[in-house]
Amino acid sequence: MGSPLGPLMANAFMCKIEKQLETENKLPTFYKRYVDDTLSAMPDLTAASEFLTTLNESHPSINFTMELEENGKLPFLRMNVIRNGCRLDTTVYRKPTDTGLLLHYNSHVAARYKRSLLNTMLNRAFKLSSTWKFFHEECERLKEIFSRLRYPDDLVQSTIRQFIESKVSEDSHTQVADKREAPIRIVLPFKDQKSANVVRKQLADLSRKINADISPVYTSRKIKDEIKVKEDKPPLVSQQCVVYSFQCSL
């Protein structure tokens, strides 16, 4: 088992290399990295080969390889990056050697773990799919995989339906929150916590009646407002050139 400090040390090491390359203006315009996997955009194959050489020559311990897109597609971190005109789409990537080996339904495992596996795979598909079309296609593949693992069709279908409904509900709440107007803030002097709670409740009732968000902002008086200095403090220049005399006890 590898040390958990391995990724942190690798990231710190690469950050130092990247800072040096950035100082020398050798980093490409688009450059993203996760631990030791990098994704960059290059104008042509020659520029990509030159950057690969520059990267490997930056330290003796570095030995990167390069993978180019094929038919506008490039796998990166279990995600398939698809070049679609001027934008990039993403979907789930599976290696050709992937056999779909997951937890079998007849395994002696609690049912909640099997449902959690379904939700985990659905959440992974949702996060890696840039469009609902790609997410639907991945859901169809997941149905085939879990069918081979003897998962009941009713369980798979209901889990997918509940997952989609939750995401649609989240989107609707987000849109409502975005359309909501900024709250109206009222500045009030703070007297005590009991009074503040009463005023806050009254403003909440008023907000519901007029369909507007009213929020109180309490302020308190500063000590300097209560204590007034009667005479001005002499300027700093008048406090210089002071001689102190100390007498020893002996």
UniProtKB/TrEMBL annotation:
It comes from the Eukaryota. Transmembrane segments: none annotated. Pfam families: HTH_animal. Residues 1-88 form the Reverse transcriptase domain. InterPro entries: HTH_animal, RT_dom. This is Reverse transcriptase domain-containing protein. It comes from Porites lobata. The lineage of its organism: Eukaryota, Metazoa, Cnidaria, Anthozoa, Hexacorallia.
